[in-house]
Amino acid sequence: MRLFAALSLVLILTTGCDPITKIMKSKDPEYKLRKAEDYFAKKKYNHAQQLYEDVMPNYKGTARFEDIYYKYAYTAYHLRDYMNAENLFKTYMEVFPNSARAEEMDYMRAFTFYKQSPKAELDQTNTIKAMGMMQTFINTHPGSTRNKEAGAIVDACRTKLEAKDRNAAKLYFDIGQFRASAVAYEALMNNYPDSEQTDLYKFMSIKAYYEFAQMSVDEKRTERYGKVVESCQDFMDRFPQSGYAKQVQQFLSLSQTQLKSIAHEQPSKTSA
């Protein structure tokens, strides 16, 4: 009796464990579509995706096709297959350019790139794409209710790009590549003029240029300490209230002292 019960349980589990297989075998597209809608509503996106993909050829050219394709695109998004979702959102806009959902699809396409944006240390190709596409969305849909969120994403992408560039500039400094570090910090100032750390970038470029001057050959020291002096004076003009102003003043004094010392050395070398 126990053996019979166990075999019955196995039979029930075996025949009932994979209902999607039974549904896929059906020849009735209406039944499959109803089940796809049910799975989608229950957030079982993997099953919904399989069924939508299977029935789409049966509804292509009908009034129902747009809604099926719309939900099919979202199954990829919800399954975190963002590369495929981006392509599906793009195709939706191409196939249904006059749809009431076209703006939503335009936004979601840009959003998939944002979802693929990695940590600041990694390649930022998708971050750059997300920022550009979100800005294009804002420009293309000036009255959209999504623009506030789109703008926030643009800012988040810019912050991440700034962090990557800042890390690179710091790395150059840490490994003693002072000229490269100074140039990188100056690029940060130019590329992110609204950053709250602009004075830090200017200060670090001064510090890097000073270290570069320190290790320079005699023939280049006058030019390079002069660069430090020029940068320090520019800093004091632009950021007189900065917390780095005192340190910048010290680099200015040190560089001016070095230039005076070099000037005193040069006549004696010439006479010799």
Radius of gyration, whole Å: 31 Å
CATH C-level class of the domain at 176-272 is Mainly Alpha
Terminus-to-terminus distance: 116 Å
CATH homologous superfamily of the domain at 176-272? Tetratricopeptide repeat domain
Question: Main β-sheet, in a few words?
Answer: none
User: What's the CATH topology label of the domain at 176-272?
Assistant: Serine Threonine Protein Phosphatase 5, Tetratricopeptide repeat
Mean pLDDT: 92
Strand content: under 5%
Number of strand elements: 0
Helix content: over 70%
Total helices: the number is 13
Give the overall form. elongated
| Secondary structural class | mainly alpha
Low-confidence stretches: 3-16
Structure report:
It comes from Flaviaesturariibacter amylovorans. Keywords: Cell outer membrane, Membrane, Signal. Residues 34-218 form the Outer membrane lipoprotein BamD-like domain. With 272 residues, this protein is mostly helical. It has a domain at 176-272: Serine Threonine Protein Phosphatase 5, Tetratricopeptide repeat (Alpha Horseshoe). It is built from 13 helices and no strands. It has helices spanning 2-16, 19-25, 29-41, 45-59, 65-78, 82-95, 102-115, 125-140, 147-174, 178-191, 198-214, 218-238, 245-271. α6 (82-95) runs antiparallel to α7 (102-115) and α8 runs antiparallel to α9. It is elongated. The N and C termini lie far apart (116 Å).
Annotation keywords:
272 residues; mainly alpha; 13 helices; Serine Threonine Protein Phosphatase 5, Tetratricopeptide repeat
